[in-house]
Batch of 3 targets.
Target 1
Amino acid sequence: MKLFGKKSEPTNKKVENQKAEKILLEKEYDFMYESFILSSQRTLYLLLEENNGIIEVLKFEFLIYKFGYPNDEVGLPSKIPGVEIYGFSQVQNSEWIKELIINNRSHSRHSDSHFANYKHYIVRLKDVTLEVISKNYAVEKMTVEKFNEIVETELSYIKNVS
């Protein structure tokens, strides 16, 4: 099929051997309970834990993410084997990354290699799932004040100055 004059593959084609592997962090976090994210246009923070004014976050410089449905009672619509329930996983041979590559081929300067370093991460929580396409992740610690500073900075970008 051709899309915008460029050859494209059908998006319903499945990537063989898509599977997930558990990511072990230096510390065990309780991914089962309440979750909170903060997102700007390119940075996503999943708050993991707060203790005495220090917040531990899982930080992604993301390309795209999904947050919300499904919960733990439904499972993942894509049925990716190996996804850690109440945990953090990385998907190998991601169908979602393949879909993004195909979609981006309409761009005049597209190259499949632009996506070579992107990874597909999944955090399964009790009531929601976070899926992220990002080049990497980091566990960081920040003070509540730093967190509030990030929120204030983001709010300043949308402040009505008229």
Target 2
Amino acid sequence: MKTVKKHGFTIHPVSTETNVSLPFVGTIKAGFPSPAQDYMGDTIDLNRLLIKNKASTFLAKTNGDSMIWENIENGDILLVDKSLEPHDGSTVVCFIDGEFTMKTVHINKDEILLVPANPNYPVIHITEENQFIIWGVVTYSIRKHI
């Protein structure tokens, strides 16, 4: 799969051909400091940690702020797995009426709703008239903090 631009959404394939093992230093407290522990012997391979289904996982870059209260911001890189079954409350990438969007999906017996995590955007009510497909479930959002 090659990089594809569709309807303002850039889709990138994932590559697991490389093995990038990084030192794992253990758990870092976000509260009060604790004595340092030496875990430098352990490593984590980010491909194994982040990608469960290589053939069905792709990367996409976010554009917009409709999911900001879910801590997904403009410019974040998303890992999206097309093999996962979405459930009520999943963050999903959808194709609706010729355009891609990312929202939280709410599924009940009567309707499907695509709910933004920003009150400045409307809830999308999916009807039989919509061309609609859930492309995949967002498994990770990656952002540079510095």
Target 3
Amino acid sequence: MNEQGKPPEGVAPQAGGWRDSSWLALVEFAIVGLIFFADHKHLIPLSKTPFLLLLGWISLRLRKVTWRSIGFTRNQSWARTLARGVAAGIFMEAFELLVSQPFLVRLTGKQPDLSDFRHLPGNVPLALIGFALVWTLAAFGEELVWRGYLMNRVADLGRHTKRAWACSLILVNTVFGFAHGYQGVTGVLDEGLMGVLLGALYLLTGCNLAVPVVAHGVQDTIDLLLIFFGKYPGM
């Protein structure tokens, strides 16, 4: 995001008319709500991320916007991008384990509910599946959905001003936290905070999705390794 609060250079402006209408965005947000409701009723298998990603793809196609326009683009230096992503992922993991999660556990009196991962410790086949899902559904899929599609879509309503991006950062990643409701109140708060950090990383790198994708993947990979070896706090 540049100093005027606009998308980085190369982001295509939306076409006029109905494609640029706030009503279209509101319809999309309503569909997001329906996807959440269906997931809450256990009508969605495994993950709602593919459904949200499909919605994002349809939205971009209708508005004649590309994934490249919102940050999924070729990087001038992949080595620098990977280094930034790895460093950010390690920092976020250390911050979560040493600062945010202990604070939230003390605040709520509850550990994150990781019962969905109870069969993972010591289970090599399940861990391998977990690593594949970390880098596809979580790192790649969630970053395209939450930081790429939804953050930009909320910012669209405010014409990409600094205030619009700030509201988008907080609002979208608060919902991202609630998307992890299966982890209980502590997990919701912690994941919401991690979402804000990933969103800030997206904005600070000029809306480059590759950096938060790598950071997200690295952080979740470390989490998965700790759970596999039975070393994750509260497991």
